[in-house]
Amino acid sequence: MARDRCLFVFACGLLVASSITIVHATSPSNSSKNACQLLAQSLGSKVQSDGAQYNTSAQGAWNFFNQLDRPTCIVFPQNASDVSVAMEAIYNSDSHYAVRGGGHSAMPGWNTIQDGVLIDFSLMKSFSYDAEQDSISIEPGVLWNEVYDGLQSQGVSPVGGRETGVGVSGLLLGGGLSYLSSAHGFACDNYRAIDVVLPSGELVTATRTNQYSDLLRALKGGGSRFGIATRFEVNAIHTGTSADKIWFGGSVIYPNSSSSEMLKALDNFIYSNRDSKAVILMGFSYENVAGAISTLAYATPFYNGTWAEFNRTFAEFLAIPAITTTLGPLSYNDITKILPPDAAESEGHLYGASSLYPSQGLFEEAFIHWSNFSAQSQIDISNANGGTAFSPPNGAYAAVQLAKDFFVGVTSVSPELRDGIKLLFSQIPRSPGLPLYLNESDETQDALKTYNWYQQLKKVYEKYDPTRFNVRRLFGPNGL
């Protein structure tokens, strides 16, 4: 059954996608073949150019648009040393390459490569809790649901993704919005150390206090350009076990006719709420199923406190007539499973982003899907932890995700739809001074250029990649 889903929500065209094929970065065949030959000699069976393991990886990206490429070879490292060897061979061969953690990117080409080397972290999925240091160590190939489920018996969790099928490394390097963000900052604010393989193949460990502190900050939202992260050490948040029902909340589905009331409530909540124990995810969607348009409006409010506090904090939302309501006591592990499983790997995805200050009528006028509330406390926490690459100014604002999903193996996007997307971005511009959220941006939006730390970010990049290898050979964020 043909269908597509639009989470742009406002003035979103449901156009037939039929004429422009998604084009990814390509690599000169000789350089990639040379890199793969060197890798096969040094890493043996950890390098595959065909066969079952190769095919599973080549077709394993979440975004169907990223399943269309055929890498010259795929490296399956098992440790940081393997990554160093791989990067050195890629660098010396001047080959294009790509890196995949969990593979959950809507950006075509960010975790795949045609005629180049793909580094696939599917065999590096270890994670552990160090009670003495009260920290969590995570390798880049693991998914958030695996981390949450694996640590819940110890009563701890990292500040991580809301959609549990998302990979750890992509979310962290892009900044990371979390249900815990209002109290503990962005996911990347909780870095203690990162092991990083630089473009030359050198392995370093960056912390807030050592000689690589500038690299650590660049990796707090700066994306993949600066090096390959092979291990993250992050703060452990004591969220309780699955038996500890210390949160209240759940899911509320509204008729789309209530969108005006919901957006007013959202505007008021972002503007007035300063309670770091409260968080809400809210969205609107239009779905085309065999030519019939259906709509959905939903909210998932949570409060780390009492039932009375929950009802008081979200009173304006709860007063809006709902279709279904599932609210009650929850453990944090319950919360991570509230959102339904993400779209299947047979679907293509395009994202875009905006970021808005609350003001009377702004959200109603734009009628957008906003993705997370960032309270004043979150920004304070971020600045107190050395800042991020995007360095948002103090004050509450909403990070907005604009998404379109294509079903039934759509492999191309029409010029009309591309033009419509660009028009939508121009109609919902970011508020002055606010950065875009990298992981939900379109490549044409040049998210890095919206960062308040942009000039310093370029200097850090020049320091760690003086030959500009990653800009030339790794498809990723523009602007460096």
UniProtKB/TrEMBL annotation:
InterPro entries: FAD-bd_PCMH, FAD-bd_PCMH-like_sf, FAD-bd_PCMH_sub2, FAD-linked_Oxidoreductase, Oxid_FAD_bind_N
Residue ranges of every copy of the FAD-binding PCMH-type domain listed in the record: 67-239
Signal peptide start and end residues: 1-25
Coiled coil ranges: none
Highest taxon of source: Eukaryota
Gene3D superfamilies: 3.30.465.10, 3.40.462.20
Keywords: FAD, Flavoprotein, Oxidoreductase, Signal
Pfam families referenced in this protein's UniProt entry, alphabetically: FAD_binding_4 (PF01565)
A molecular function GO annotation: oxidoreductase activity
Family the UniProt entry places it in: Belongs to the oxygen-dependent FAD-linked oxidoreductase family.
Name the UniProt record assigns to this protein: FAD-binding PCMH-type domain-containing protein
